[in-house]
Write a structure and sequence with these properties.
- The chain is of the alpha/beta class and 344 residues long.
- It has a single domain, classed as Vaccinia Virus protein VP39 (Rossmann fold).
- It is 42% helix and 16% strand.
- Strands 2-1-3-4-6-5 form a six-stranded mixed sheet, with helices on both faces.
- Strand 3, helix 5 and strand 4 form a beta-alpha-beta unit.
- The chain binds S-adenosylmethionine.
- S-adenosylmethionine (SAM) binds next to helix 2.
């Protein structure tokens, strides 16, 4: 999938879709709720250096659904609180909500003069790559990095993320004013060694291979499909921020989020005798979260006729390996950055 294809095809399932992102984004909502104190810290620090008349804020990769305005409401609320405490006049707000298509954060914004943004937020956007990495021919039977992938696959993914994230930082450094803040979250991994991790996409590869066995999908189509997404470790984020050089890193944290729609692992352990149907119900919820974010990409490659069958199988695989319902705990990285330089 080329850069142009990804730009056009990458989006979450629309609100009128049966399995919409809007109805399957409670995990991402937990992330936004969890990082509110970090946003508060970043904005409070920025306000010590810049008290804007009009505060310019951007949310990059905002999608459409209940989360779209949530981060922006938090930001406005935090500024309200600061202004009340410090007896400052409340600024006006100029807000940019950004998402694809043709509104790609891999470009500099045409709307804002340089060095004009006070605060940038992006939740669960930067782990999407601008294109499928080159060099994944050997990733046969997998649709993402997997424990069975050869080393060249891990390198190809890591190289593409390094390029995209470096580009992202240098574009934002043109838009954000000195001492302005930026808080980013993405799905991450614990282990610096990428071959040691279970990324959660393997049950989807397995479901596609089931359809190959049935003769519904061609093996070559599975071999040539790879998700344009990357799960970095915190060391990679720190290294890229340092090497790019435009931002000081105030905070870099790793945390886990639960999807409230999926029973947590602790609860499962206390309910060893759960009926298979309960696991199947949980499996469907987990499969729907995955479907809401990956269906447009899968449809473009495999066609939409197999989607119901594919995700029913995925739900069953999740239920079969019920101790492995990946979305009960998703590793998330948050990084809080300040643009270097003296405030204007
Ligand atoms: C998982 S959704 C997260 C949406 C929302 N921020 C939330 O937390 O619920 C990621 C969003 O980032 C968008 N995105 C990914 N790459 C992008 C890019 N290069 N430019 C603009 N948006 C992008 C996707 O289209 C998608 O809507």
């Amino acid at each position: 999938m080329s850069k142009i294809d990804v730009e056009m095809l990458l989006h979450m399932n629309a609100a009128d879709h049966e399995i919409s992102y809007a109805n399957n984004s409670s995990l991402q909502k937990q992330v936004i709720l969890k990082i509110r104190p970090i946003i508060e810290e970043s904005i409070t620090d920025a306000f010590k250096k810049i008290v804007p008349i009009c505060m310019k804020v951007a949310d990059l990769g905002c999608s459409s659904g209940p989360n779209t305005f949530m981060a922006i409401w938090h930001i406005i609320d935090i500024v309200h609180e600061i202004c009340q405490q410090e007896q400052l006049k409340l600024p006006e707000f100029e807000v940019l909500l950004n998402d694809l298509p043709e509104n790609d954060f891999n470009f500099v914004f045409k709307l804002f003069p340089t060095k004009s943004l006070h605060f940038v937020h992006s939740s669960y956007g930067i782990h999407w790559l601008s294109k499928v990495p080159v060099g994944l021919k050997e990733n046969k039977g997998n649709i993402y990095m997997a424990r069975s992938s050869p080393p060249s696959v891990f390198k190809a993914y890591a190289d593409q993320f390094q390029k995209d994230f470096t580009n992202f930082l240098s574009l934002r450094s043109e838009e954000i004013m000195p001492q302005g803040g930026m808080v980013l979250t993405c799905v991450g991994r614990k282990n610096p060694n990428p071959s040691k991790e279970d990324y959660g996409w393997e049950p989807l590869s397995k479901s596609l291979l089931d359809l190959v066995a049935e003769g519904v999908v061609k093996e070559a189509d599975v071999d040539s499909f790879n998700i344009p997404h990357y799960t970095p470790c915190k060391e990679e984020i720190a290294e890229i921020v340092k090497r790019e050089g435009s931002f000081d890193m105030k905070r870099l944290q790793v945390f886990k989020v639960n999807d409230s729609a999926v029973v947590s692992r602790e609860e499962q352990l206390h309910n060893q005798d759960l009926d298979f149907n309960v696991y199947l119900e949980m499996g469907k919820k987990t499969a729907n979260i995955m479907r809401a974010v990956s269906e447009p990409l899968l449809c473009s490659h495999f066609g939409d006729a197999i989607m119901d069958n594919l995700f029913t199988r995925l739900a069953t695989h999740f239920a079969d390996g019920h101790s492995n319902l990946k979305f009960d705990k998703v590793i998330t990285i948050v990084v809080s950055l300040t643009k270097k330089g003296n405030s204007l």
